[in-house]
TrEMBL record:
EC number annotated for this UniProt entry: 5.2.1.8
Span of the signal peptide: none
Protein's name according to its UniProt entry: peptidylprolyl isomerase
Keywords of this entry: Isomerase, Repeat, Rotamase, TPR repeat
Membrane-spanning ranges: none
Catalysed reactions listed for this entry: [protein]-peptidylproline (omega=180) = [protein]-peptidylproline (omega=0)
Lineage, opening ranks: Eukaryota, Metazoa, Porifera, Demospongiae, Heteroscleromorpha
Gene Ontology molecular function terms on file: peptidyl-prolyl cis-trans isomerase activity; protein folding chaperone
A Pfam match: FKBP_C
Organism: Geodia barretti (Barrett's horny sponge)
Keyword Oxidoreductase: no
Cellular component, GO, one term: cytosol
Length: 240
């Protein structure tokens, strides 16, 4: 009877050791549970998604009509799974189209310079010129090439070379204001309202009243302002 008693004591000792180890493990586990849970591993979830899609497709291939229905909804399930994991929803095609249109309008808006800030006179550079230092100053003698187009497509004011003194009021205000911001060799489009073109009167017979015009302007040459203190009589006659 004594030997079984020893075995029982030994058994209790072993159970006691195991209990202590179990208690130690539970204590460690309790410590981990009290921490803030980490964010889900997106890479791991993506792997689960691939496995889920593979199993769904495999079931669909062997299930006839039922399998076809399951395969047909696999993409929808994948999208829902992605939304649950990432918290993001895919943009519908209409929304993306509207965003693309808005971005295009913004880019086009950035290309046009609103010279006066009123929308009446805008300039867009088609070809760069020789640099800011080549821009004309007030009363510079400039030479430009022009080609205008009405809203109906009719071509007006087509000149291969027309000289004038910048800011002297000899030409359309649209030209004066736009050319002052151009560089030698620059090619630009200029949109002008009637206010800075031919106004309410128009010009008979080719330009109607209140006509907006889009001009193609090229700055060919710039000469410094005339120094009237040193100009000769012949040069003055030529200028006049």
């Amino acid at each position: 009877m004594e030997e079984p008693a020893e075995e029982t004591v030994a058994g209790r000792s072993e159970l006691g050791d195991a209990g202590e180890e179990r208690a130690h493990e539970m204590s460690a586990t309790d410590g981990e549970d009290s921490r803030v849970p980490a964010a889900p591993d997106v890479t791991y979830d993506a792997t689960l998604l691939e496995q889920h899609q593979s199993e769904t497709t495999a079931g669909g291939e062997g299930g006839g009509e039922r399998g076809a229905r399951t395969s047909g909804t696999a993409k929808e399930k994948a999208v829902r799974f992605k939304e649950e994991v990432t918290g993001l929803e895919e943009d519908p095609p209409i929304a993306r189209g509207e965003e693309d249109k808005k971005e295009k309008e913004e880019e086009e808006k950035d290309e046009w310079m609103d010279i006066l800030g009123t929308g009446d006179l805008k300039k867009k550079v088609v070809r760069d010129g020789g640099g800011v230092e080549t821009r004309p100053t007030p009363l510079s003698r400039v030479r430009i090439r022009t080609k205008g187009q009405l809203d109906n497509g009719a071509v007006v004011d087509r000149h291969s070379s027309i000289p004038f003194t910048l800011g002297d009021g000899d030409v359309l205000q649209a030209w004066d204001l736009s050319v002052s911001l151009m560089e030698v060799g620059e090619l630009a489009l200029v949109r002008t309202s009637p206010r800075f073109a031919y106004g309410r009167q128009g010009r008979t017979p080719d330009i109607p009243a209140n006509a907006s015009i889009t001009y193609e302007l090229e700055l060919l040459d710039v000469q410094p302002p005339v120094d009237y203190a040193t100009v000769t009589e012949q040069e003055l006659t030529t200028l006049v």
